[in-house]
Every structure is written in C-alpha cells, then in structure tokens.
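Appendix B, example 12.
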Amino acid sequence: MRSRIIMSLVAAVALCAGAAHAAQFERVDLPGAPGGAIKLSGVIMLGDDASFHALAEKMPNAVVITTGPGGSVFAAINIGSEIRNRGWTTLVPPDTYCASACSMIWLAGTRRLLADSGRIGFHAMSIHRDGMVVETHAPDIDLRRWLNALGYTEDTTATIVNTPSSLVRWLDRLELQANGIAVEPYPATQ
C-alpha cells in the first residue's frame, strides 16, 4: 500500500511538472574551489538527478551552488545523496535563495555555506492535484529517515517538514544553527 502511495505521488509530481522547465546544471569557476563548482538553478524535475550525475562524474571534486524554488523531492534526495557520498560542499550564494526540494540538496553537503544575503526555506511536502497544491505527509517518514541518515536529529527534521506547504519558513544562519544545522558563512570571514 505504502509503495503505491509513493508511486502515486511520483506520478502526480511528474504530471504537474511536465510543463515546467527542468533544472539547469552548469560547471562554473568559484574562487576557493580548485575543483570547480556545479551551479544548480531552476525547478528540480524527475530525471534531473541523472543530469546531475552525468556532470558530477566529470569532476573529481566540486562545490554545488544551490539556487531555486524547489521541485521534485525525490530527484532532490538522489542529488543530495550523491553530493553526500562524494563529500562535497553546498553553497547558497549572495542575493539568491534555495527553498523546498532545493534546500534538501543544500542540507546534503558535508559542509553547508550560506551568504549573509542568501536564504534557505523549508516547508512540508505537497503535490498538485486537480489544479491545487495539496499538502501530503505520506512520504514524510522516508524523508525523515534520509535526513536522519545525513546526521540530522528528529527535532531538526521536525523543523524542516512541519511548516505548512502553503508557506515557506526562511531561516538565517543563526536560526539554522539553533535548529541543529551546521552552516558556515560565505565568503568565509577572516
């Protein structure tokens, strides 16, 4: 039954996302990152994890720059898992934001960097059904397990998934740290 619910969610996200543009992945130079960086921007779609993997395979080391409004949490978890397995750093640069599924990718970095004017936003998972956004908690247990495997506590995962899907909870560096999420400034303070 549970796998049927998750597959229904995957299908619903895929159908609703079909009209949107997939995320863009671009290799860029970043001062202080000798291996270069991968810039992720746009809405994360099912299948974007394969595009990310193809680019990541060509880089021995990278910082992943995460910006965007979110999208498929399933693709984001796959991208995040690859980032964590490679031991890569994630970054939200100045004057940008990373919300929803994008923030799951950012959380996967072994080091998480956030510019003073960068923003990280969290909310509960949702699906599109009959032209409406509907909050869903069916796959929360899987998301919480993944976050726990990354080293986040139950209290931290509650902070991440308990904001209604119709809102975004924006956290600055101090609020992230107060909620058990280690984060470093970008650029690094001297």
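The first strand starts at residue 24 and ends at 28. Confidence is low (pLDDT under 50) at residues 1-19.
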